[in-house]
Amino acid sequence: MSQTIKEIYSLNQNNQNAEPEYALDKWYDRLINKTVDEIDLEDVSRMLSQNVFIDLGIKRAIEILSEDPIAGVFYDGQLLELLSAVDLDDFKDLSQLKHLLQKINSNISHLDWSSEEDQTEYSELLTNFMSRINL
Question: pTM for the complete prediction?
Answer without folding.
Answer: 0.90
